[in-house]
Amino acid sequence: MKTVIVLAVHGAPPNDFPRPELAEFFRLHSLAGAGKLNDQSHQDRYAFLDAKIRKWPRNERNDPFHSASQELAAHISEVSGYEIIVGYNEFCAPSLDEALQSAVDKGADKIIVATPMMTRGGEHSEKDIPAKIEEFSKRHPRVEIVYAWPFDTTKVARFLSEHISRFAES
To answer: What is the structure's pLDDT at 169?
Structure first.
């Protein structure tokens, strides 16, 4: 059985993306979120801008979050021994759906989806990621997909307390 980890992270727009197009994207994104993106030309423009943002070339300077996500994935792979594929909820490629498909294409029988979003109450970790996993599972019923969430609050508190203590003692 081959297991692949998909690390589901938020994503951020690159800071060198053209500002007028970014403003237009967020205006359309807001309309889409409110269910008011009814005009086909607006839907097409929104899809075009979303794809353009996601496929924008990334580097440490224009998207430090992307670089940090890739670095985290590399460290998790090194520690766990599993192949890690990063999937982004927004603004970056590959999308979570594309990352899940990539895992299947690489022969995964089991996919474990993990996220660094450790606290409950977040829209992505509580709703978006599980919905995308459920949707993907329907298309791939033979692949076992596990969402490694939520985190144990006591363990998160212990981890953060140990981290904080390093700064308190200096």
So the answer is: 77
Nearest alpha carbon to residue 70 among 78, 141, 52, 110:
78
Q: How far apart are CA 99 and CA 82, in angstroms?
A: 15
Q: What gap in Å lies between CA 109 and CA 2, rounded to an integer?
A: 5
pLDDT at 16 exceeding the cut of 90: yes
* Paired tokens of 144: 């076992």
pLDDT tens across 63-72, in order? 999 999 999 9
Alpha helices in 1-147, H assignment, sequence order? 19-33, 40-55, 64-80, 96-105, 123, 129-139
**Per the structure block, which two tokens stand in for 69?**
């996500």
User: Please, which pLDDT band fits residue 30 given cuts at 50, 70 and 90?
Assistant: very high
The pTM of the full predicted model, rounded to 2 decimals, is 0.93
Contacts of residue 74, Cβ cutoff 8 Å, sequence gap at least 6 = 84
